[in-house]
Amino acid sequence: MQFDFFPSKTLTWYLGKTFLIRILAVLIMLVLVLMMLDLLSNTAKILAYEGNGQAEVLKYVGLRVPQLIARFLPYSVLLATILTLATFNQNSEVIAMKAAGLSAHQILAPLILVALGIAIISFGFNERVVTRASATLTAWEANDYGPVPDDPTLRANIYLNDGNDVLMASTISGTGKNIVMQGVSFYERDDSGMIVRQFRAPVARFADPGWRLENARQFDVATAEVRNLAEPVIVGPGITLTQIALRKVDPDAESVGELRRSIQALDSAGRRTAELRGKWWHKFSGPLSAVLMPLLGAVAGFGLARSGHLLARAIIGMSLGFAFFVVDNAALAMGSFGGYPPLLAAWAPFVLFFLLGETVLIRTEE
């Protein structure tokens, strides 16, 4: 094996430019197709809110596209790898490069360099764009695509316990004693867990202790009677501001620094954080998975095209790439349940498939 990975500046530029163009082309194609499918299922929900129109649909597209880019960028790198190397193989360019003395690793080096640049850009894009878009979209969806206050403290889908009783809110905003909940439902339950009484209110404010429901509607399960309450009612005296601060964390909507602080806060309160720690590590290993794709898809670029095995090699390369994503998701799930330590859950698939890709490449080509 040769270790001078970039012997020709011209060839490096040609391979890298071709690979980058195909990554962008595949990514644009995937995002456009998936965005159209997404709109088919969600446009009706967006327009169901009175006053929503084309502007709101475009707003949804603007918030959803960053999520699609972040999720499918590694897939785009994989498909671009197979497309690029299969084309080079079919046109005998790989044979020409090997005849010039280049090894398989030297042919792949410019592709891996481009993939590394993509991974770095992807990490920054996730931190600066995707997290904010995810937080905004989650809050908007929780508000049934209605107007959402421009508040950085806004959070969505809050679930809190006061003994057997449960308080749920579609959104919550503010800090300290100025916290305001909207779209509130409170369920009084007996010792067996059965619901005895239900309260619904558009707004709830901190009453120190408890939460004051304004313009509430009460439903008694035993009598099936519904009443509109003229006076505010206090519920959930055991739900404190500390519980609000330790709400359910959405790792997709928080940057690395924010998620780390949330994990530390939950740790200090004795809460389980294995799932969040796995997601924190995955914020690094996820974008870096793009670097693996040229290695896993490399099998499509070698071997004689005229042997008739080019399609089979492309399928094998695609299968290796998609197997990585399956194992990666399975490892994260196992980490969430405590089956793997968070660090192992996030990085084990990367290391495993890196070794697998290197083994296949060295045994077959080097």
Automatic annotation (TrEMBL):
This is LPS export ABC transporter permease LptG. The keyword Transmembrane applies. Pfam families: LptF_LptG. Keywords: Cell membrane, Membrane, Transmembrane, Transmembrane helix. It is found in: Cell membrane. The chain crosses the membrane at residues 20-40, 68-87, 107-125, 284-304, 310-331, 343-362. It comes from the Bacteria. InterPro entries: LptG, LptG/LptF_permease. It comes from Croceibacterium selenioxidans. It is a multi-pass membrane protein. The keyword Iron-sulfur does not apply.
